[in-house]
Design brief:
By secondary structure, the chain is α/β, with parallel strands linked by helices. It is built from six helices and six strands; from the N terminus they run βααβαβαβαββα. 45% of the residues lie in helices and 20% in strands. A six-stranded mixed β-sheet has the order 2-1-3-6-5-4, sandwiched between helices. Helix 2 crosses helix 6, helix 3 crosses helix 4 and helix 5 packs antiparallel against helix 6.
């Protein structure tokens, strides 16, 4: 399986701070028992058109089975990940974002500010995750069963 993990952060891409979210995705994904033949690792700023182009390239040209984004899902002006994702999706799967918000809300009431979504493009699944490493540790395990099932269907 080929998986891309894309950290969307102006500050991490500028080297102001270290990307901890991308490595957290790999850690949690490994603990979930996934065998990844190849990781594609990208850190880039919150630029909608660049994100759209990257997502198209990862799905269409690089044929990633799964693209996990982290960051850019909040209400701030520069948070454009859901818009960029929706622009490239063929079919949206909003349940991914819904379950992450509902499940984490009792612990973190501001979870309702997340606009994470997911969907398919060709045979690729794209899932938006929060930008905080702790939130990734809480949210990614929630959607692992759905990721497994979606990938199975996309291979048919």
């Amino acid at each position: 399986m080929k998986v891309a993990r894309v950290t969307l952060s102006d500050r991490a891409s500028a080297g102001i701070y270290e990307d901890k979210s991308g490595p957290e995705i790999e850690r949690v994904f490994g603990e979930a028992g996934f065998t990844v033949a190849e990781w594609v690792r990208v850190v880039m700023p919150d630029e909608r058109l660049e994100i759209e182009a990257l997502l198209r390239r990862l799905c269409d040209d690089e044929q990633c089975d799964l693209v996990l984004t982290t960051g850019g899902t909040g209400p701030a002006r520069r948070d454009v990940t859901p818009e960029a994702t929706r622009a490239v999706l063929e079919r949206e799967l909003p349940g991914f974002g819904e379950i992450m918000r509902v499940s984490t809300f009792p612990k973190v009431p501001t979870a309702i500010l997340s606009r994470s979504t997911a969907g398919t493009r060709g045979r690729s699944l794209i899932v938006n995750l929060p930008g905080n490493p702790k939130a990734i540790g809480e949210c990614l395990p929630l959607v692992v069963p759905a990721i497994r099932e979606a990938l199975r269907h996309l291979r048919e």
